[in-house]
Amino acid sequence: MRDNRAAVFPGLMLLIFFMIPFLIMFAVSFFSRDQSAFFTPAFEFSNYARFLSPFFGKVLLTSLALSAAAAIISVSIAVPFTYFVTRMPERQQSIILVFLLSVLSLSEVIIGFAWSTLLSQTAGIGNLLATLGVLETSRSFTPSLGALLLGLTYLGLPYSVLVMYPALSRLDPEIPEAARMLGASPVRSFFNVVVPLMRNTITGALILVFVFTLGAYLLPQVLGRPQHWTLSVHITDQAIFQSNLPFAAAMAIFLMLVSLALVGLSSLLGQKRT
Question: pTM to 2 decimals?
Answer without folding.
Answer: 0.83
